[in-house]
TrEMBL record:
Protein name (Swiss-Prot/TrEMBL): glutathione transferase
Principal EC category: transferase
PROSITE patterns: GST_CTER, GST_NTER
InterPro entries recorded: Glutathione-S-Trfase_C-like (IPR010987), Glutathione-S-Trfase_C_sf (IPR036282), Glutathione_S-Trfase (IPR040079), Glutathione_S-Trfase_N (IPR004045), GST_C (IPR004046), GST_Phi_C (IPR034347), Thioredoxin-like_sf (IPR036249)
Amino acid sequence: MVIKVHGSLFTACTSRVLACLHEMELDYEIVPIDFSSQAHKQQPYLSLNPFGQAPALEDDNITLFESRAITRYLARKYKDTGTDLLRLNNLTEAAIVETWMEVESHHYDGPISTIVRQILINPYFGRVSDEKIIQIEVEKLVKVLDVYEERLSKFKYLAGDHFSMADLHHIAYTVLFMKTPKSNLITSRPHLNAWWNDISSRPKLIKVVNGLMFRDLGSLNILSKK
């Protein structure tokens, strides 16, 4: 059975899964979700993801949702294909990868995704961006980015000198963040900026990165429905 990904290239969480599939050189089929008709909030999609969010994945006899769980599953099941994203053959390296994956999930994703929604998505839907929320989230993000800058002054990638899932999980929302006026928070930090330029230009990931670099805000009606 071909791996099936239910979602859209324009959603950050779906793109996280697609980036993993591309990096691991796995074949897959995209099953588009009709967000405009709220298909993700109805059956049969709810049988794949009961929370009505994208993406969902079907592979052999298993159905999964939650993008980070999906990428871990793919990296473990197909560990001998493509890039070794979890460093499974080295306990120490694997533990460091997992640590920085947790950092992304618990410290990075919250502020950066909120900033993206406030600056890019809210105006498109006629909602006023809340400058107070943006400032609070920027202050949180700055503290995280300072930690990253220090880490990347010693290593090429977050988990060491090898590209890993820890780096890959950052790509989707950072692509969108770099389209906001706050992108200087990354470009002004030389080691962080070098890291971002490296991971966002990886040949295996260019298609996913370009998919998120929508040319007009009309794509935001999909981006807002994770």
